């Protein structure tokens, strides 16, 4: 038997290898189905009528495709007592996520740059102390945060959530940029310093243009985290200012009236679509963010 | 004169940028932890009070049967969630490491649940596991008349539905981390092992997996961290119910803080959560940061 080793994998040839190969693909395919079937169930249920849902199997393809459930989930489903669908809450999430992502990314970039390229005594300790904030269970800050938002007059508002997400996103964004800037040779910055360039000059003209990958990773990570957040949304907002995740949960758990599973599923897709789109478009960067979340850059 | 001032400012700019951000995190992280910690040592109920009451709230917390349910659920959930996600993650990573041509596409499929909110995941699985119309109905339609699958509404089994949904969402993440680890194993060692006549099974169990020990550690810590913080998934899938059968520390704390207005007990439970996370995260961060400096 001939053994070959390519890119770290030992492969053998012969009929046994062909069988193994077929089994391998069968198992991989089976797991594709496992990960995909909830998505399929979500989409197909959202396209069915309630009658069809009750009669048929939830695994079946829809017989007549209809978008009524989507229209209702977007525009007229009841969230608590208000029956305007998810649309206003979707907008809340946009108004929350966009400024919070921009703010936390910008501040994290500046912070990571100052901590790595303009090292001063204590920089490592400051970084370690700030990094810890990325890992605390947020339950431990819920009560004082609720009071602080009240004092600031931001209780129950979307700007309040922007503040919360910016503050607690800072640890992660600093981590991402610090890990990136550590790989940037100090020589570049030193040379610019000798040429008389200052802190912001070097940042905007030299460091920022080369950190596009770090910016993309951070923006995607922050957007996913903030869009998908539920804890802060449910703790710090009420009714009209709820983000879409909280509204989705309210739609699904409304106990009044007939349970409309098709509307629930359409609402779930609507709430999940923005982050899913980001993932499909920029999956590689998303994965890099995930592994950076494991601290190592 | 002016240039001297501007130069002095310029020299302090890095510190002037970092200081306010550091101050923000001191206040919002450490200040808030201190406040919660102090409240947990007072007699606070509806409203925060600042009179010191020793460990009263901790005694009350550990006298609450619901807290024990939450802890038990956390252990059951974490154990199964971490164990199954890791086993699945290693398994899929090894399969994907066999020079698959469509690896990119498969990886994308395995990992997409991570992009979803736990609320979306919970909503879908609630529907799939729905006793009346979900899997149970499908199995009965297929001829298994007596098939029963009511875990979602069965207090003894509801916590396992949280495991099912949690594993679905996070096992791809574990896979991605293991795959990255597999790719960093030195080819030369593998070639040497192959020349010595070691079969693929032995190469993996004796050489590859042992060399992935740091990755295993990272994955355990990341998943444990997710498990302890899990809140959204429980709320969306079971609402902590039936009754409080699927309560976890995170939902317990929320219920006591915002629904039952027992601020002291809520603060005490939050401190317990923080201490658990610290016990896991601090040694890990310490070794990672120290390792990175070398």
TrEMBL record, chain A:
This is Carbohydrate ABC transporter membrane protein 2 (CUT1 family). InterPro entries: MetI-like, MetI-like_sf. The chain crosses the membrane at residues 18-37, 94-113, 125-146, 158-181, 202-223, 265-287. GO terms for biological process: transmembrane transport. It is a multi-pass membrane protein. It comes from Rhodovulum marinum. Keywords: Membrane, Transmembrane, Transmembrane helix, Transport. Residues 90-282 form the ABC transmembrane type-1 domain.
From TrEMBL, chain B:
It comes from the Bacteria. GO terms for cellular component: plasma membrane. PROSITE patterns: ABC_TM1. This is Carbohydrate ABC transporter membrane protein 1 (CUT1 family). Belongs to the binding-protein-dependent transport system permease family. The keyword Transport applies. The keyword Glycosyltransferase does not apply. Keywords: Cell membrane, Membrane, Transmembrane, Transmembrane helix, Transport. It is found in: Cell membrane. Gene3D superfamilies: MetI-like (1.10.3720.10). Residues 71-286 form the ABC transmembrane type-1 domain. GO terms for biological process: transmembrane transport. Pfam families: BPD_transp_1. Its main location: membrane. It is a multi-pass membrane protein. It comes from Rhodovulum marinum. The chain crosses the membrane at residues 21-41, 74-96, 108-128, 157-182, 203-228, 263-286. InterPro entries: ABC_transporter_permease, MetI-like, MetI-like_sf.
